[in-house]
Design goal:
ANF_lig-bd_rcpt; transmembrane; GPCR_3; Rossmann fold; 31% helix; 1167 residues; glycoprotein
Amino acid sequence: LHAYRTCKSSEMAARGAVDMMEEYNVLGSGSNSTAPLLGILGPERTNEAIVVSRMIGSMPEDKRLLQISSSATGEALSDRTLYPNFFRVIPPDTTQVKVLLELLVQIKWNYVAIVYDDDAYGRQAATRLRALAQDRHICVPLFEALPLDHTSEVFDDRVKVITQQVTASTESDSRVKGIVFIGGAVTAKEFVERVDRSFVRFIFSEGLGLQGSVLKDVTRGKGALTASPPYLPLPEFKVYWSEMWNNRTLFSAEAARNPWLDSFDKQQTKCQQLPLDEACLGDTSQWLTEFYELKAVAVFVALLEKLHADACGNSGLCPGLKALLNRRSEILQTLQENVLDIDIGRNFPSSFGTFQGQTVAHNNSGEIVDQNQNGSVYDVYNFQECTGNKFCFRKNELSLTTSLIKGYGDRGEQLSWALFPKAQCQDDHDCTECVPEDISGEVAFVKGDFYFVAVAPVHNPDGSLQCGGLRTFTGTNLVEGILFALEQVNNKTGPSGIFSQIFGNKKLGVIVIDSCYNQLVIKERLIDLYKGNLRLPDGTNTSGIVDKIAGFVGAYFSDISVSMYEVLSKVKRPFVMVSPTNTSPVLSDRETYPFYLRLATPVVRAILSLIHELGSNYIQIIYDPDDVYSLTMKESLDQMSSSFNVCVAQGIETRAYVDSNLNKVRDAMRKYPSAKVVVVLLILQHVKNLTNVILPQMSDDDDFVFIGADGWAKRTEVLEVKNSKKLRGSLTVSLDLPLDQRYAEYLRKVDPLNTISPWLRNFWELRKACYFDGSFLRKDKTDLCPENLTSDYKQDPWTPFFIQTVYAFALGLDDAMAKHCGNRTAKLDLYGDASRENVFDDNGDGVVRIKIYEISPENPGSSAMEYIEVGRYDPDSLVLNNKAALWIVKEGTKGECDDRDCTKKCFQSPQQNPSSEGAQSSDNNDSSILIPTVIVIVLLVVVIIVLVIVVIVFYRRRIPKPRFCSSERRHVASDHMSVQEMHRSVSQISSGYRPRQETRPVPVSHSLPAFYRQNSPPAPHCDSHQGDNNYIQLEDPYDKVDKTPEVHRKRIASDPAVRPMPPVPVSDYVSERVSLSKDGVLSRDPRSGEISPGLQGYVLRESSGEGYPSGNTQSSDASPGDSGDGSKVFFSLPVEDSPIQFENDEIPTQPPRRCNPADPDYLTPSI
């Protein structure tokens, strides 16, 4: 053994390594040495070990000395490309950091300072701990480094700064009550002595080394926790060490051999002179590294034993061993590839009994691999006045025996675990630096084999690209509804066993995105999602799961859904999108939104039916022109009002979050006092703001009655505004589904501090005006949140819609993924009565029942209002329980057109005007002039219609009829699921879909046409352009050759004419000379009057069965369906914008079915 001192200096460590290599002739130069050098033990510190290993590791392989460290734990040393010769017998800092992190979580420290030695060990471990802490919602407001020289002024100044920041407590800044120190024992002692504050508690890294002497004289050291690799006592060494420090003769003899023992003694005992006085001798604590130093020595011994056995066998020292020791690359390889038995007590019975039965192995990074399954990787120690107690860290989980942990109060009194001091944000403070400014990127994530993306408005907008405050209604609760429904699907525990056979052994996952009710935010989030930039809670991003997304659920607001569709329509493949709550009429347009479905029923027709039934015909509308839902509802109501004999006096604009607009609403309503019925088409928050402003302004003469749309519905928040009694008699329409009691039980059990949703804790804190243990927002909150948070919680009425939408999506996805779907249908138990209901109609709109509510006093004479159910609206059918009892009828406030301006504006004929006295006074002379004029106009219209029919009949005779393949003909099938299939399956799940056999005109379009939804699934595109509606696959349906693969391949190889045609763009397949008439029926060329001449695309000839591209047909005199050479020409024309319809007698009675070669009855349409 040859020792070199480093004095904590990287330069001295490097100098010692150079001296050693020269002295032992490692490089083949210098003085000869008779003793071969096996390797290097140490250095102790990470920064020293890095310097030495980089220097030795950069040498040729046969010159690289083995280096084993017992205490250098730095993470950087795991890099084999930089440190190929480095091994260690102590776990690296990556393990230590995980232990420290789990320790912080379990003792509920989430507001801490990290102080560290300014060296490689301290910087690397501290930086990693801070990064991991942020992911676990642990705030680090103070992150400071200390210089290694604790005698310097810099050290003193830095400690003063840290002390000031820790102890400061102002209205805006909270005290830091917990400090994590990562560094060596000497620095730790100096730091703790100077930051001796009664409220500060410490956690130390393994650098402290279990040295009780460091903390025994420091009051604040009591109760400290330290993470450490497991320490095993070495009885033989302890006896030797104790005897040396208690026997002056033995100590003097040992000091003569060890030149540094004297200095160490003076540092520990403060005795300055030798010979030593007995008073200066005593029991000095053992250091943690002593065990690992001896373990490293044991590894060297075991390695030498292995090398000797390989080179010499059972004989003694042989020349082969000395030669092997000079082949240093083989030494490194032997250590890395073998499990070594370090039970060297077999050969030295009086020593090293601690290592009995132990083995050691290393991985490819030189890290020690635990071969002793009963041992712990890391322990946590509590510094107590009595003997320490340890708690083991096994399998990445920290198991704390809390009854053994002791804390100490400000006066040194011992505290139980229940009162163990916590390092958290101070009461009555908001630690805003710990709350992220931009939370729009946070998501709730459940891992699965495939995914759907759900969108909910967790936060309000703030007028910019960022989110505002968290919504305390209709937001976070919707997220929990989604997670509950997903749990039901994956656990196969849904209502009536509906999910018992779903997905096999696969799991459905979800990514829940916060839209913040901001169109720009949701667009940005979706773009990040598809770019793979959206960060997930597990630290990964969405790049690895984008291709597993099957569709979307949401959004809550119609305008957010429109914005989502704008983005989704531009990605490389379309997605099915199912909304639980959207009622905007614009989303019924299947040309614009072909793969969109919604659970909610459009309510405009229900509102107009209600108004008509009440006998009202003169109304006003309050709407928000900046909101898609509100604006499109208003437009639809304007368009449909005349068919219900209702006149819209005016539309009153009011913009959300602009109070100045709200103040003008009442005056605007008074401009049309006869229009007493005011329809409110606003979202809930806007309704609350509006009623809060205008109700106090309304006098007793303002006898207006409101009819609220589904944005108002049955929300109790509206009844809590000022002067809510003035809402008496108002009516609302509401889409109601029963509340799920299983969801209520689920919500009661969810732990807000340990849940999938990142927003639930803040949601409850705002709802209850309380704070949870560990909260960063405590200002103006004096109480901890109660355990039973849901005791007085009322479920959001929209939550069941989100739950049922997830159910419908899951069933639709399962059906679409099945290889053979057949004609089976599935329905949902929407109303909790074990009945199975349809959910979507043929257009993809919801058919959920609409209920009518009246606002009435809770008790006679009471000013408190409540909602009373007074009727319902099923599709095209309104039923009122007792119309005569309604306030609006009894008080005569239904609003009727009773002035000439109203009559002139809305009711042009006497038959339309209920108040027709004025209209009946029309002049008889005017009538005598009007009647002949009308007769002439009618005759002209009849003549024009007859001419049009004649022209259409003439053209139709020249249109070649489309043909369909028979069930015997070849078709190329695809195993891939198209988005059309997915859309069809989801819509079928709830619409009671069954294929019909009756004949209908066949629209051909790039979108999903009504024919396919109503009659049969569309044949998927069977080519490499699966799902791309701008391409079609042409086939040879009249090929009569043997269909066996071998024969067919030979036929293709010998005759190119029969090869299946490649996919071609639809735009290239339609002749420029073929036009469409206004009603979409195929017509003749307006220039030549011909159909078949001039067709471009693929022409199939019946006589040869060959398909090939063709420009013009061969003869301009050819009759329809004749190519000019005697063969029949037939074709189909998928077009991009307008559907082509064929007459009923030109399509088969059997509609096309999904192409499936295994099905003997499958048909291949030519459309």
